[in-house]
Amino acid sequence: MHILIATNAFKHSLSAAEAALAIRKGLMQSRLTGKITVFPVADGGDGTMEALLFHKGGELQTVRSVNAQGHPVTASFGWMPGEKTAVVALSAASGLSRLGAARLRPLQSDTRGTGRLIKAALDRGARRILIGVGGSATIDGGAGIIRALGGKFRDRAGKMIRQLPEGLLQLAQIDLEKLDRRLEKVELVVLCDVTTPLLGRGNCVKVFGPQKGAESGDIVLLEKALKRYSRVIRSCSGRDVSAMPFGGAAGGTAAGLNGLLGARLVNGIDYFLEHTAFAAALRQADLVITGEGSLDTQTLSGKAPLGVADRCHAAGLPVIALAGAVPLAPPGVWQRHFDAFFPIGHAPEPLDQAIRHTRENLARTACQLGNLIAQKTSLH
């Protein structure tokens, strides 16, 4: 039997590759025999840069930047010299993980640090820049990136707006005259891990604002700011980004980059699988194991395990998912995508402890899964 392990990152715990290796370790400790292939995957969220470099090779380029609140940090982007392609993870500079214990202030947090990484990629000679937008601490519509690349935001009096995204409440004009002209010769691709729109029902502020520290009053102001931002983008570029699929990714960063820079927004896992050797690996497999930290409604909106499962079923292959949390009462939709799915926890415990035990829990669950498969195989 040939098992393909195609896991996403387990957030706050293991990278996609580390999770896959933990599952492999467990399978190798079981009675199951056969070949095991590790194939970490990503969907534009945490770990996308590392997973792409795992498959395509390349190196990390470390530069000075700032976090979402403007404090100095060092951050890296991936560089594939043969393809002149840079991989920028928004979370590397502008992510929640870079704020540490700092109080979350979504009205005063922006993506300028990611803009500095993009500028560094341009300095390196990039002809294509892939931007993974998961894990952000921001709801600024990518305005910080635009400003870092030379764009200017002005109010009705023509005065420069400094504080983003709060200042977007007074936005009247976006000046792109000084925008870095190298962007005109670069393909920008935004790998999105959610389909959430910028505005309207189920918009990015309401869905993701609370996890970035937005309270009820903040949510009202941020929605107003992004509505004004969207209107000014339309008058500036002619693009209506208010309701486009994926536009709300990373607090509207996807919408802003599409509307002002012409970036292409793509389903992250589809792009990842199409531009790695996943199809070839799938042809060699008899069974696929996927997984991520939590199987939930966001998984069904286009996360990595769903993309893997859909391709498995198209190829007529069974797929099993392992996760730290799974639905308690799975509706039929889950069973249409996954042949089986298992929680990896061995006992009730606080979330922080469960996160620390992810590696061990994955290996133990995989070992028992391997034994079960071996037993089933021996009966035929």
TrEMBL record:
Species of the source: Compostibacter hankyongensis
Family: Belongs to the glycerate kinase type-1 family.
Keywords, sorted A to Z: Kinase, Transferase
InterPro entries found in the cross-reference section: Glyc_kinase_flavodox-like_fold, Glycerate_kinase, Glycerate_kinase_RE-like, Glycerate_kinase_sf
Annotated protein name in UniProt: Glycerate kinase
GO function terms (MF aspect): kinase activity
Leader peptide range in chain numbering: none
SUPFAM superfamilies: Glycerate kinase I (SSF110738)
